[in-house]
User: Fold Cyclophilin-like domain-containing protein from Chitinophaga rupis.
Amino acid sequence: MKRTLLFLLPVMMLAYACQPSGANGHAATPQDTVANVSTAPDSSAPQLTAARDTSLADTVAAEDQPYADYYIVVADTGFSYHPLQAKLLQLKAATHLKVDSMGRYYNPQKNRIVLPDDDEDEIYAGEYYPRREPGEYLSLEYLYVYSRHTEDSTLALISGIYADEASANAALPAIKAQVPGAFVMKGSVYIGCMH
Assistant:
């Protein structure tokens, strides 16, 4: 019991210290400049069946923190950034949806999508910060943010996050016309303070 209280105390202090900020704490900065990249589909597209390890900290955090059920339109998934980025640009041209990178970029040395090292958010500078708010934007995200049944390195090309299933299903046909394998998934998204 004493250990549990000692573990929960920092979590409770962190929750108390968090103050609401903008939609996601970062300015939306569309960045859709790309070098020449292959447009071949990613044949290593992962399935949603690989389970993530969950620790006691994950379990406690899930029970004590705010989550929202959102519906995410996923155009494609994979482990390689560049093929998904090329597909993102194809979807942008075909659907006229805006690209919103949230200021993030692919860092080849880290093999991760990250914020710049000099980002104003000192906690997430040089790290991945997830898209967590509803909106219709094309972006590349890590799928584990929306589904705990994926590997941490699984990337997802998403075209929107919706508060209700009907809106996601209404948006899906335009994406499926370009990417027949697109789908809607229900995700339990952490919407609490990230600091």
Observations:
- The first helix runs from residue 2 to 17.
- DSSP finds four helices and six strands in the chain.
- The two ends are 26 Å apart (CA to CA).
